[in-house]
Specification:
- Helix content is about 35%, strand content about 30%.
- The chain is globular.
- It folds into 3 domains: about 1-80 and about 145-180 and about 315-350, Nucleotidyltransferase, domain 5 (2-Layer Sandwich), CATH 3.30.420.40; about 85-145, Dna Ligase, domain 1 (2-Layer Sandwich); about 180-315, Nucleotidyltransferase, domain 5 (2-Layer Sandwich).
- With about 350 residues, the protein is of the alpha/beta class.
- It starts with 8 loop residues before the first strand and ends in a 7-residue tail after the last helix.
Length: about 350
């Protein structure tokens, strides 16, 4: 992390907004030298799929200009049903042997035509036992057409895409840069965005389990719109605890509770599956990021449901940021939605 290399722009292309972060080394940590966020019009990005590339590219270009970011190299990320992350067990082999056989091995686990995906992998651990032994490999597959959609949008802005990451792993990067890692502790990183939730359960620097849930903050907004007859923008404000058009937070509490229960049920299924299939049957701590973390009462409901300490994830806990320089009035308004962009900005060209 601390080697001297050229910085990149972390670009989080979300379904409700695009966020950019650029970092520079400062002593043993980093400081933010470029930062910004801008909304994208509704229905231009749906469930992670870019529907209107020209509009999205325009929003990104305007944001980069407004943020005075000159750096050309950009790191973006994907999530949702176009990305598959699996742990597989293979016989111990050399890196060269694994490189030759990974496509054949992956075909057994990837529900897409292997010709339609880009594959990456990392050896997590090796276990010596009877005979040859085994090794655990983290396998990541992303659909080529989705990667192309994202890299083409970046190219339209005149910038160069150098890495395409996965949202869940970007949040993990930001976590490792900002929090002291407690050996043996099992931590659930929940990144709850507008169109979905990325779940990454980690221990130390190892990802134990990941899953994306296709319910997010938009479900709250749409339910408020439907029940109270509000515009999308008014429903967004009410969702965050503001009073709008005579509607008080207490008026929407039952709606928020109902949607929260549906989302928490999906998170519960994920945690139960993790506990049933992984070496650990516990989760010691939950860190919540993403715009949905600002839904009135959501973080508290997560704590009540799972009985573990829950806190808002702070991607600027150790990374320095001058709020005044970037026109930020309240850090608590921007920190929850910056986790992915910060994690991407920590990457470097040439990273796997």
């Amino acid at each position: 992390m601390f080697r001297r290399t050229k910085s990149v722009v972390g670009l989080d292309i979300g379904s409700s907004a695009v966020k950019v972060v650029e970092l520079r080394r400062s002593g043993r940590t980093f400081k933010v030298v470029g930062f910004g966020s801008a909304p994208v019009p509704g229905d231009t990005i749906v469930d992670g799929a870019i529907i209107d590339a020209a509009v999205v590219a325009d929003a990104i270009g305007r944001l980069l200009d407004a943020s005075h970011i000159k750096t050309r190299d950009v790191v973006a990320s994907l999530s949702g049903n176009s990305v598959i992350v699996k742990k597989i067990n293979l016989p111990v082999m050399t890196e060269a042997e694994l490189s030759e056989s990974i496509h054949w091995e992956a075909e057994q686990y990837i529900p897409f035509d292997i010709q339609d995906v880009n594959l990456d992998y990392q050896i997590i651990s090796t276990h010596q036992g009877d005979g040859k032994g085994s090794m655990e490999v983290l396998l990541v597959a992303a659909k080529k057409d989705k990667i192309t959609d994202y890299t083409d949008v970046i190219k339209k802005t005149g910038r160069t895409p150098v890495v395409v990451d996965v949202d869940a792993f970007a949040v993990q990067n930001a976590y490792e840069a900002n929090y002291d890692i407690e050996p043996g502790a099992v931590v659930a990183l929940l990144n709850a965005g507008a169109s979905g939730v990325n779940i990454n359960i980690v221990s130390g620097e190892q990802s134990l389990f990941t899953r994306d849930i296709s319910i997010g903050g938009n479900a709250f907004t749409e339910a408020i719109q439907k029940e109270l007859g509000l515009t999308f923008d008014s429903a967004e404000r009410v969702k965050k605890g503001e009073s709008v058009d005579g509607i008080e937070p207490a008026d929407v509490a039952p709606i928020l509770r109902t949607v929260s229960e549906n989302l928490l049920l999906e998170i519960q299924k994920t945690f139960d599956f993790f506990k049933a299939t992984a070496a650990s049957d516990r989760i010691d701590r939950i860190l919540v990021s993403g715009g949905t973390s600002r839904v009135d009462g959501f973080v508290e409901r997560v704590g009540e449901r799972f009985g573990a300490p829950v806190e808002l994830f702070d991607p600027f806990r150790k990374i320095q940021i001058d709020a005044t320089k970037f026109g930020i009035e309240r850090m608590e308004d921007v920190a929850p939605t910056s986790a992915v962009a910060v994690g991407l900005a920590l990457r470097r060209a040439g990273d796997r």
